[in-house]
Write a structure and sequence with these properties.
By secondary structure, this protein is mostly helical. The chain is built from three helices and no strands.
Length: 91
Amino acid sequence: MNILDLALSVAIVAVTLAVALCAWRLFRGPETTDRILALDTLSMNAVALIVLLGIRWNTALLFEAALLVAMLGFASTVALARYLSRGDVVE
């Protein structure tokens, strides 16, 4: 086992733990803003996990999936924040 495999294994475990903690905050969050921040962080961690798995499995398809998840995560965070601040998404 070389150093890249070891680093990928450690990173995948760390990001998976971060995903679990974000999911816990998403379901337990006392405020709505805590849940939105947890959802945003969860989407960023999902992107990181998809990229790490793409490196591990040596496939370019997962990098495209990571881009899609990143765009959807950003758009959903902006839409939710706008809905909370103004009461509607589109003016």
